[in-house]
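User: I'm new to structure prediction. If I give you an amino acid sequence, what do you actually give back? Let's try with this one:
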Amino acid sequence: MGVKQHLALLVDIGSTYTKVRVIDLEAVEILAQGKSVTTVEEDVTLGLERAMAAAGVERDALGEFALRLACSSAAGGLSLVAIGLVPELTAEAARRAALGAGAVVRRVYSYQLTPREVAEIEALRPDIILLAGGTDGGEAKTIVHNAVMLANSSLRMPVIVAGNKAVGGRVMDILRWQGVDARLTENVMPRLNVLNVEPAQQAIRQVFLERIVEAKGLDRAEEMLEAVAMPTPTAVLAGARLLADGVDGEEGWGELMVVDVGGATTDVHSVAEGSPTRSNVLYRGLPEPRLKRTVEGDLGLRVNAPSLLAALGEERVRQAMGVDGRPDLTALAERLSRDLGCLPQTEEEWALEATLGRGAVKLAVARHVGRLEEIFTPRGPMFVQRGKDLSQVGTVIGTGGIFAHHPQALNMLRGAVADGRDPFLLAPRQPRLYLDRRYIFWAAGLLADEEPVAGLRLLKRYLVKREA
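Assistant: Good question. You get back a string of structure tokens that encode the predicted 3D arrangement of the chain. For your 468 residues, that looks like this:
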């Protein structure tokens, strides 16, 4: 049988489940879907083949698909340590570059690295180090010092150099002399308060394609597919941008926010300018990127259920659950963290998951959006804005398994909407709410480069609107 030019096989090799979608690109229709527990610790292809079988796809039939693409957050996702100069400037710019590239930022270091900090990085064993520091032509001693510290350590993962261009060559020589795979790219902050994160993000993605896929055993999946093309968060952000901006001949939905609640983290993506919307507001701090992603590693519904419960407050969660008796919430949360693939069975478990899910959404959105601070001037009260003003964002979308399957999905997503209790929080006020009931946001993102029209129409067709 020849290649069916209108069929795409899209795969997400997640930290818990491997998911498969078969898409008809012409009809813009999900023809089949399946999932299986991810088997990255054994052989990732075992879980992949089981997920494909659940979707009715045999390995011998892979050649029939015009596109076979995958994304992955398996084995902890793409972990990164960022190093900069000043915490609020180049270190923060490096962190934003990493998050926008789909990485999980394990730690951010500032100023000159100490032996203790180098030992911490050695213990963390990140996949990539992003080394920044200094504006172009500015302070140079720190990034050179940090390069020496890294070169003299046991760290041999790829290092992306994105700092002061005046000493970029010297930094590269220091690292490569000791056998480090160093990659030079443009400065993430070439001038004070000017961000330039895209080149670093492209370098991170290139390292992912060349090195990380093999290191995590995902290259075995590539033998069946065309490529594990990107980390899953990158695919979700690509889908968000596609839906917001549209493509030639097909309009998007405008500024929006996507909340992705997972087992290990809760990610928030926004596509919006985020500039002040009121005349009496002054902006302070680094400019915010139009495409922004934040990752909350303490807000996962499985791996981090105990820390999420602690962050929300056990007694508050108990009251919000609305169930009889006094269930042992600590024991229930510990069970969720041990058994990553477990599904709620009892009324108490369903209520706990719904309450934790809404709490994760609320906390993650509050950390993603900006805030106002009231100040008093001779001309009267004014406000200072830090972060993005997303109060006027028109659309909020919930994606992830919790929004696809839980009966209280809408109530959980409502946690993203400003409730008036904190008037200084710049969260969406009156957005339209959509649920990704078919869990296809990542799949549309995989199509964004090669089949953007199909990807956009896929989102428009399958996202389910709900009343706020």
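You can read the tokens as a compact description of the fold. Here is one thing that stands out. The chain has 16 helices and 19 strands.
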